[in-house]
Amino acid sequence: MVSVSKLPYVVFREILANCNASVLSALSNTSRHFNNNLIRDLPRNMFKIKISIQMMAMLETSKGDTSESFFIPYLDCDRLDLKDILESAMFSFSNDSLASLTVSIDGMTRFLKCDIDSLIIDCGHCIGMMPQILGWLNERQQSINELIIKYEAERDVEDLDYFLKNMNVVESFVIYVDTLPDGMRPLHPKFKCDFLSVTDHPSNNWMSLKDISNSDCKHIQLDTSEFTPTEWNTFLKSWKNGSNQRMEYITANIIESEDMMIELTDGLNVVEREESLIRTFVFVSTPCAFFGGLDIKREDEKVASVVIGPIMHDNDDGKQIRALTVVVWPEGTN
């Protein structure tokens, strides 16, 4: 029987390219010689890697339609009941356990010769650890494609502030923010990525629509955020004057007022389109139909349409909340 590692280089490399991560791990334990050949010949970034930093820390590999998940060991994890909901609610990494976790991640990704594509962080399990996590991430790679953060109210707000100011996300940033303490200072984040999704509590004030004006994103979803007509007016004027050059789409909510349309359109020179006009915009590969709307043109001839949707719900103070969407049309399609 011919040893796999003694096959011609091209054949051996092709075999490795068709293995999943668990098979590669098993093969690496057959002999030191085979492991050395595997490390030498395994193609780089053959897998997409997703890491979850939480009590049940996980590494997921994906290649085509195939994915596998692996638990990431760290210091003292064997003392925890990883499936206990109550213990999970009380858990937080120590400096030593987080350091051992990142060492494990580095070892696993080094073996697979892959960067981290996606990172999920449960901030409730990483109290005070954001500088340590971000320092580790930025040292091992220049940027990350996707970042997902789950942030809870009672946790250290300085963690969130630090991460927002120092992260480098290329494609997608998704953040879930629970109710924050009253009187918490605004954080004034500036986002730069292709896709931004913020699921927030309407009473929070850590982020404003002005912060979105100062950001640089293509597709923006602020599905639970609520802004006044005046705030939307300021945002649209900022776009008309040249902010958000890459923006193609934003959706959030507007707080209805007695003079909503006057406040929204003040000084914008809008063109109201008939409801019978149906235009289609493709949002992340999904076609969406827009009926009518208010068109705004800026000096570079780009046109944005504002569409106000139906009432979503009533607030406790009786004010009604409507969905609001802004689409920036590709040249020649509006």
What is the element layout, followed by pairings?
Blueprint: H1 9-17, H2 21-28, H3 32-41, E1 48-53, E2 58-63, E3 66-71, H4 85-90, H5 95-112, E4 118-122, H6 130-140, E5 144-151, H7 157-166, E6 169-177, E7 192-199, H8 209-213, E8 216-227, H9 229-240, E9 249-255, H10 260-265, E10 271-283, E11 286-297, E12 303-314, E13 320-328
Parallel strand pairs: 1-4, 4-5, 5-6, 6-7, 7-8, 8-9
Antiparallel strand pairs: 1-2, 2-3, 9-13, 10-11, 11-12, 12-13
Helix pairs in contact: 5-6
Q: What is the structure about, briefly put?
A:
The protein has 334 residues and is α/β, with parallel strands linked by helices. It has helices at residues 9-17, 21-28, 32-41, 85-90, 95-112, 130-140, 157-166, 209-213, 229-240, 260-265; strands at residues 48-53, 58-63, 66-71, 118-122, 144-151, 169-177, 192-199, 216-227, 249-255, 271-283, 286-297, 303-314, 320-328.
Strand numbers in spatial order across the main sheet: 3-2-1-4-5-6-7-8-9-13-12-11-10
CATH architecture of the domain at 46-178: 2-Layer Sandwich
Q: Which range best describes the helical content: under 10%, 10-25%, 25-40%, 40-55%, 55-70% or over 70%?
A: 25-40%
Question: How big is the Rg?
Answer: 24 Å
The gross shape turns out to be globular
Q: Give the amount of beta strand, in percent.
A: 25-35%
Main sheet characteristics: 13 strands, mixed
Taken in chain order, the helices and strands follow as: HHHEEEHHEHEHEEHEHEHEEEE
End-to-end Cα distance: 67 Å
